[in-house]
Amino acid sequence: MSSHDISEENLPEQRGAAQGAVRLADEKNPFADPGLPPHEHRRQDVDERAAKRSERVVALLFTVSMLATIAFIAAYVTIPVDKAIYVFPLGHISALNFALGLTLGTALFTIGAGAVHWARTLMSDVELVDERHPIEASPETRAKVHADFQQGAKDSQLGRRKLIRTTMFGALALVPLSGVVLLRDLGTLPGTKLRHTLWSKGKLLVNMNTNQPLRPSDIAVGSLTFAKPEGLEEKSEEFQDEIAKAALMIVRLQPEDIKDKRELEWSHEGIVAYSKICTHVGCPISLYEQQTHHVLCPCHQSTFDLSDGARVIFGPAGHPLPQLRIGVNDEGYLEALGDFEEPVGPAFWERG
């Protein structure tokens, strides 16, 4: 736009003088204030059909965001975790991760793009001059802020452009569902699996080091032996999950040293079997004091007395170690006579 296209009243000198914003150069202010350039109206400001087209574009972007969010949830539910696809030039990648990234990125991008297009084409873009003033919450300031807010709300045309308002609210309402769905990755619902382990009646006690079933003669007085349930192999996919609940420590005491009546009944010739998982935060117990029959958790020093029902005698653990009832089968091997009667490891809210 040339200076000939600007009306006289819109010239910087004239308009600035009217607004009191233009200052000529002098000794104190060597740089002259040129004032504001003339405001140029956008096509949407003068053509309602163009404004309607922009409104539809913004609504389309918000609608795409909603559809992308729905696609994100659908992909999360339906695509298997182990499915891989080939995407050039990335190669073979996880189909689930690719779908989640693409849909969530689209949902967020289209909300932002819609907001930017709305602001650039439909919201007011008139330049405003506001003199600096002291920062204080005077009644006049509060009144001005309130008036500016109302004017901004009016200029945004949020009340007038109902299609934009409806689709924007829909997009903003659906996007948080992506985060809610992702909460599922905190873990699957445990159900009752925290209450049960692989131990059951007839399961042999297998030495963790030799992978051989244990006989009473294999357990010496004062020794500490670690065992696992028969059939649980280290190469199996569920090994870590199951051993975290079923890990067992076996100690042989003199029967007369056992103080707890139930512990004695559940033992075999002084051989007692207790959960290896500490009842504080689930650390594996591995330290045994032969003379006192105490076992010590190395993480936070919770101490349990294996001669007295594995009760807690020191440390932050909240309850004794669960005991496994054992016996000997017809072949002379140590076997479980059932599962633990209470959940192993740290207490949880369902414990009862």
Q: What does this protein structure show overall?
A:
The longest helix has 31 residues, at 48-78. The protein folds into 2 domains: 39-186, no CATH class; 193-336, Rieske [2Fe-2S] iron-sulphur domain (Rieske Iron-sulfur Protein), CATH 2.102.10.10. The strands form 4 sheets. It has a 5-stranded antiparallel beta sheet. The protein has a 4-stranded antiparallel beta sheet with strand order 7-8-9-10, with no helix packed on it. Strands 1-2 form a two-stranded antiparallel sheet. The chain is of the alpha+beta class and 352 residues long. The protein is built from 9 helices and 13 strands. The protein has helices at 12-19, 43-46, 48-78, 95-121, 139-155, 162-174, 176-182, 239-246, 261-265, and strands at residues 84-87, 91-94, 205-207, 224-229, 248-252, 271-275, 287-289, 294-296, 303-305, 311-314, 323-324, 326-328, 334-336. It is elongated. A hairpin with a 4-residue loop joins strand 7 (287-289) and strand 8 (294-296). Residues 38-49 have a biased composition (Basic and acidic residues). The cytochrome bc1 complex is composed of a cytochrome b (QcrB), the Rieske iron-sulfur protein (QcrA) and a diheme cytochrome c (QcrC) subunit. The chain crosses the membrane at residues 57-79, 99-119, 163-183.
Note the main attributes of this structure.
transport, Rieske Iron-sulfur Protein, alpha+beta, 352 residues, 9 helices, transmembrane, disordered N terminus, five-stranded antiparallel beta sheet
Topology as a string of helices (H) and strands (E): HHHEEHHHHEEHEHEEEEEEEE
Instruction: Please tell me the total number of domains.
Output: 2
| Global mean pLDDT | 85
Please give the alpha-carbon distance between the first and last residues: 82 Å
- The number of E-state strands comes to 13
Beta-strand share of residues? 5-15%
Radius of gyration: 38 Å
Computed structural class? alpha+beta
> Ranges with pLDDT <50 over ≥5 residues?
1-20
Helix content: 25-40%
Alpha plus pi helix count:
9
Spatial shape: elongated
Strand order of the largest sheet: 3-4-5-6-11
- What summary fits the major beta sheet? 5 strands, antiparallel
